[in-house]
């Protein structure tokens, strides 16, 4: 009987021990699961990385730890596609370039993100990251086109006002050249690269209010109009022939080698930075020239952040994206890493606080941002862009007239559109 009692006691103790171990394992597992839910991985180029202090503040207020994966912009797209092929997230939150939106949406690499109307109105570039009325990434780094003219050069040539139309740009350029103020007064990309495509997009859209038809085919009238302007600048020797092969068209403004340019919004700061510019306090940012008057719109080429549909921490990821693109954080990102805000309200505050100087029409243009894509950036954008910039480069090398270039561009772009319906 005693042996039986001892045996029962041993079994009871063993059972309790096993139960305790199982309970501990269960608690540990739950703890780890909870801990994982309070962490997000963030894949971003070095230019968009928040400071350690900012990340600690976010962790303190949200309980969410952010693991930053600083990654070269050139590598991000491949890492996302490789991970997605195995139905895994390259990161919970990652960089999304404006040109990737259609491709990522079609491939199922982006989670839909809900945004308030107030936030969308404050971030005009959000339209670029929307497809069928749904937002798939939230812009954090602004880049929209601004016109710049070197007032000192214009004054030297006796030109008293900034150009408001492209006819005036060309007329002024001829005067600047004839008076030997600057050899190549206008600088614009003409090489067989993406910059020539984006130049074509903003020029056609700002002059005509459209680049593509509602069915995504290229609008021939608008295309020809833009090509004629680019051709005139080139054939009349108003733009440096080196731009046909070089990607350094934009720096010519800050180097004092050009008097007029339409380029990235980042040049508002660059032209007044003594470390990067030879024309400090000489350049004025103005509204883009139009056809008969100043343009009423500009075009964005921004960067955004999106959430992987394969993320296991989607709620934490959503909270991080909301924080990262908030007014306060956008202000701090500009102060600490010079990321230009996508929120108009934050740009205005930076200007009022004297953080950005000699801004000219920067704020005005931030309220005029529109997307040239009637149905969102298409998933075949890369193929289409290649056809556009190759055609522009052929015209720049005088192998095509503007009319021939327009015919070729329409034929090739519309073929890409048809193949991807």
TrEMBL record:
Superkingdom classification of source: Bacteria
This protein's record includes keyword Signal: yes
Keyword Transport among UniProt keywords: yes
SUPFAM superfamilies: Periplasmic binding protein-like II (SSF53850)
Pfam families according to UniProt: SBP_bac_1
InterPro entries: Bact_solute-bd_prot1 (IPR050490), SBP (IPR006059)
CDD domains, sorted: PBP2_TMBP_like (cd13585)
Signal peptide range in chain numbering: 1-22
Keywords of the record: Signal, Transport
PROSITE patterns: PROKAR_LIPOPROTEIN (PS51257)
Family of this protein: Belongs to the bacterial solute-binding protein 1 family.
UniProt name for this protein: ABC transporter, solute-binding protein
Gene: malX
């Amino acid at each position: 009987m005693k042996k039986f009692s001892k045996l029962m006691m041993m079994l009871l103790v063993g059972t309790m021990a096993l139960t305790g171990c199982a309970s501990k394992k269960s608690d540990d597992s739950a703890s780890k699961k909870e801990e994982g839910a309070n962490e997000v991985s963030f894949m971003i180029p070095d230019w968009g990385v928040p400071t350690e202090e900012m990340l600690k503040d976010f962790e303190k207020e949200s309980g969410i730890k952010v693991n930053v994966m600083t990654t070269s912009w050139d590598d991000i797209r491949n890492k996302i596609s490789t991970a997605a092929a195995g139905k895994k997230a390259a990161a919970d939150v990652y960089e999304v370039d404006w040109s990737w939106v259609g491709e990522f949406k079609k491939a199922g690499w982006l989670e839909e993100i809900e945004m308030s109307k107030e936030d969308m109105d404050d971030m005009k570039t959000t339209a670029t990251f929307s497809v069928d009325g749904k937002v798939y990434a939230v812009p954090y780094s602004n880049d929209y086109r601004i016109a710049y003219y070197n007032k000192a050069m214009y004054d030297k040539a006796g030109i008293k006002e900034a150009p408001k139309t492209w006819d005036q740009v060309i007329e002024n350029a001829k005067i600047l050249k004839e008076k030997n103020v600057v050899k190549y007064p206008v600088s614009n990309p003409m090489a067989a690269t993406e910059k020539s495509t984006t130049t074509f997009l903003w020029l056609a859209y700002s002059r005509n209010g459209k680049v593509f038809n509602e069915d995504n085919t290229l609008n021939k009238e608008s295309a020809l109009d833009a090509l004629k302007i680019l051709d005139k600048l080139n054939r009349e020797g108003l733009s440096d022939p080196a731009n046909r092969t070089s990607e350094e068209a934009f720096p010519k403004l800050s180097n004092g080698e050009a008097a007029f340019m339409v380029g990235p919004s980042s040049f508002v700061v660059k032209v007044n930075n003594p470390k990067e510019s030879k024309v400090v306090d000489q350049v004025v940012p103005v509204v883009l020239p139009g056809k008969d008057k100043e343009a009423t719109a500009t075009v964005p080429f921004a960067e955004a952040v999106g959430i992987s549909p394969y993320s296991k921490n989607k709620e934490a990821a959503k909270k991080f994206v909301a924080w990262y693109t908030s007014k306060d954080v956008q202000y701090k990102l500009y102060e600490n890493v010079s990321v230009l805000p996508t929120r108009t309200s934050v740009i205005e505050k930076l200007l009022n606080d004297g953080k950005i100087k000699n801004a000219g029409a920067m704020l005005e243009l931030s309220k005029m941002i529109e997307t040239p894509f009637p149905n969102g950036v298409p998933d075949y954008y890369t193929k289409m862009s290649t056809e556009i910039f190759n055609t522009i480069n052929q015209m720049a090398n005088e192998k095509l007239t503007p009319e021939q270039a327009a015919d070729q561009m329409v034929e090739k772009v519309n073929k890409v559109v048809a193949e991807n319906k």
